[in-house]
Every structure is written in structure tokens, then in C-alpha cells.
Amino acid sequence: MARSVNYDQKIEEAKDLVINSIGETMDLYGTNRSVGNLYGTMVFEGSMTLDEMREHLQMSKPSMSASVKKLQEFDIVKQQFTRGSRKQHFIAEKNFFNFFRNFFTQKWEREVDRNLEAVEKAELLLQETFQGVELDAETQAEVDNIQAQLDHTKKYCKWLDNLSNAIESGQIFEHYPIPEDDDK
Questions:
Q1: Paired residues of 143 in beta bridges
Q2: Which of 30, 51, 77, 166 has the highest CB neighbour number within 10 Å of its CB?
């Protein structure tokens, strides 16, 4: 029995809702929305060439290529060998737990590195500037306040690094297991 055009339209609408949501979510976390839309499309479409992606999303080939590279950097899209094809094929990570692990841990690791580098430079600057100098009470209180904030930032970075490592290793699932499938 042939599917009705209305059924096909409703299926595409359902996919578009999820693709749009993925695009919005990735945009919230600093990745271009079109990259998120590409990832969402690839989740539903399976293996795709750059030409197929371009045709599906109406984007330029250079823009599409840059988007695929960005998704590969997050390790959520991989190149796939397809026998008999001269074109490159790409496939998206469909397991959202793996997606979460790859996408967010990279962002958090970058955040930790940037913040710790800034803290180290700030501490060095304070130390070089004020070491051995007798400060008035107001200036000393300000330096102490800044140092307290730097110490708090280091504690946060250590916590975030531990969280990132727990997610990357899968240890997080011991404390927050993946829900079982319901029989609904």
C-alpha cells in the first residue's frame, strides 16, 4: 500500500521539529545554528555526501564543508567509506549520550584551560606587582578580594574538569544512569 502524500509531509514536519530543536540547542552552546541543523539532518538521513547535504539544506558547498569539519572536530560526525563511490560520505553520531559526551566535554575542557591560564597570569601579575610592597588597607583588601575570586575560579575549574572526566570516562552513568526503555 502506497503512503499518502499527507503522511510523508507529516513525517517531514516531525523530523524538522527535532532538527530545529537540535539547531537551537547547539546555538545556545556557541555553535552556529546551521551546523546544528546539519547535524540534526544527518541524524535522520544517515550517510550523506557534501552534495546531498548542500541540496538538502540549501547551503553553499564551502559552507557545508566547513560545517562538516566543525562537527568532525566535536567527534560527532565521521567520514564513512562507501564502496564504489568516489565521493566522501559522512555519518552522524546518533547516540545522544555519546554526542553529549563529545560535544560538551570539549567545550568544558576549553573553558577550564582558558580560565586557568587567565588565573595563572593574574596571580603572576599580582605577585610581581605587590610582592614585598607594603599596601594601604584598602588596596590590600582589594588584592585579597581578587585572590579569593581567583582561588574560587581554580576550585570551579577543578570541579568542571572532574565532571568532564567523569562524563568522558562514562563514570557519570554510575551516579546518573541512562534510563531504561519504557514498555509504552
A1: none
A2: 77
